[in-house]
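> @MW can you paste both from yesterday?
MW: sure, first one:
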Amino acid sequence: MLNASHHLRFAAAREPISEGYPAVAPPHPRGFSVKFPPPGFTPSPSPLTNSFFTVLTPQELEMRLQWMFYVMTKSENHDAAPFKEMILKYLDQRELQTMASLLTSDSDYFLMIARNKNGSKRIQKLLGITDDVDTFAAAILGRFLHIITDKYASYVARRGIAVFNKKKKEAMYERILHYALYIARDKHGCLALNDIITDADDLYYRNKLFDVIAHKAILLSNDAYGNFVIQHVLKLNDLCCKNNIVVSLRGHFVDLSIQRYGSYIVNLLLETEESMVVVVEELLEGDRLMRLTRNAYGNFVLCKALRVTLKEMVRTDLYWGLVHKLKPFHNPLRRSRGSNIASILDSIC
């Protein structure tokens, strides 16, 4: 099955997916200072409807944006809880929509609020109680990379995917596909991508994400964060995606086994029979086993390979193939990193 690579689907065989993603992190938004209100400041219950749609001077707009930042980010542990009080007591649906328009009117302010722990939670709440999602969708898409790769702001994007209509969800998925490799290799982006893949209710886009990930499995397997995406996808047990990943990684299992991040992937592939066969057959090729025994990560991969082939015994030739190749080095292994392998060999002698 795994050998029949021409039957496996890849994104490259379908509609081409752009691999244009930044080589470095995107620049931070333009800097400006936010003037926090003085202690004891209490915003008026509803400053949104006072001629909001009339032409505002830059100073008036700045004051409203400052007010919005204060309301959205102020800690609820303080005596005053302006956001909670405003939502519960003062705002009707029309004012909520007006608030959403103000919140998204300046992309830098929106991003700063989304990156704030409290701000992120409150934007998510607004996404669930107002129908005015057009402005939110545009704001998220407009600063997508900054949002999806931020610890707190990424939850805003995830919430958006959950509540947006089909058209807006598709726009979000297209943006994710375009930047998938960059997101997967980001500290916070990889976690967001894993959740998005798990929760995706559109099989078409879920499969396209699988295709992108499988097609670039080598790149991601050797990456400090990308490897967690590969591990996550493998654990979802999508047979076609797993087969595609194995096809992409074939010929690289030895090199991956001696790398910290790559060894995680090889160990995971050893846990299922079909992929285990492909991995062990490659480990047995040539004189590669001793290279693994001398490596801090490779010797653990070998131990795992010995245990799983012994346990399964579906392909006894694989187990005994490993044993026969390792036996001549039994004594040297006792005095090296491979002492754990020597212990396994002792148990069968």
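MW: second:
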Amino acid sequence: MAALRQTPLTCSGHTRPVVDLDFSSITPEGYFMVSACKDGKPMLRQGDTGDWVGTFEGHKGAVWGVALNSDASRVATGAADFTAKLWDAQTGSEMQGFQHKHIVKAVDFSPDSSLLLTGSNEKILRIFDLAKPDSDPQMFTGHTSNIKKVMFLPGGDTILSASDDKSVRVWDRRTGQVARSVELPAMPTDVEVHSDGSTLTVTHGKTVSFRSIESLDEVRVYTAPTQLFSASLHPSKSVYVCGGDDFIMYKFDYATGAEIEACKGHFGPVHIVRFSPDGELYASGSEDGTLRLWQTTVGKTYGLWKCVEATIEGKQEQTAA
């Protein structure tokens, strides 16, 4: 019996490349997803269906980085207009703006949502206290090129940054100093902190490396058929997905590195991929201006996917309602 073919759901609405996305945790209303786009208008969606919830309007340039806090009440964005912004996710209104001196590429909330971390082309990390928006941020310097990704690590006492200077660094918030770092053979294009709190997923070149958060040592390393921009590890650590230059979404076995799927769907390079918090789907954002949702288990009834099978030219098909 032939395997079911992957039928992604397409989330339209953006008019330029989608470059970042983030999921909330699972809330009483389900989970949510926010996307960053060069059109300057980040969007909030229902995570399991991709249904549009709202658009955050106020940036005057491309939005490069986005973060959704755990309970989906707040959104943070970083943009080419040299600002980071805090938004009310329920009303869509701008709550606070934070001026920088260069493009803000990455943002993240602390675990308790009280702090906002930013990384910019100034090569500086900043932590803003959201309860004291007029106070000066804590600043971390040392990178020698643009900062691409920033994130709070579990517990909130350490933060991580990835830069075009080919380094990934972990900083101690109390001292402002680098606690540990690793030099990569190529510029890192993406870093993800796994939900287990102990594993980093790092992409650079054609490589996906899985590293210990504690030491930054490699645990596993695999290569892909294309230059990669992003990868995401399933909550169960059974599989990982990645995408990049060749428009294809790849799924690999985490234990062996064996390829499981290679699915076409996008019409441009894949800039960002992330698994949903329940692991039932993964989302991808592309140069083609779309978000797409893909099933982890093809053929399972979930969200807008209905498990209705019909034989067409000898193939089993799945419908997406």
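> thanks! The chain has a mean pLDDT of 94.
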